[in-house]
Amino acid sequence: MIDAALDPAIYQALAEARGWRIRRVVDTHIHADHLSRSRLLAAATGALLYLPAQERARYPFTALRDGDTLAVGAARLSILRTPGHTAESSCLGLEDRVLFTGDTLFPTAVGRPDLEATA
User: What structural domains and CATH numbers belong to the chain?
Assistant: First the structure.
């Protein structure tokens, strides 16, 4: 049984309520301090899974490298490698207006670099 907090149907319902379809799932890093739903969500929706380039994930994904861009509708996400929290940590820039930092930055701290894990 899947914990409701991990159920990808939550994200599917949010997307469907807005008339959206999930085609790509992007994660900023793999780390032991959280349980990502990216793999489950990609499998449940048939979406492509994107992760920063690394050798730890033991399942299929499309690797994102520093400087890559990813189309999201008419917008573009730019990949910016920001190692520190993990070796592969990456931020996602949306049209040079918004930066999704993953666990790189917090209001009063930075992401812990000492919890390296395999996926």
Answer: 4-110 (3.60.15.10)
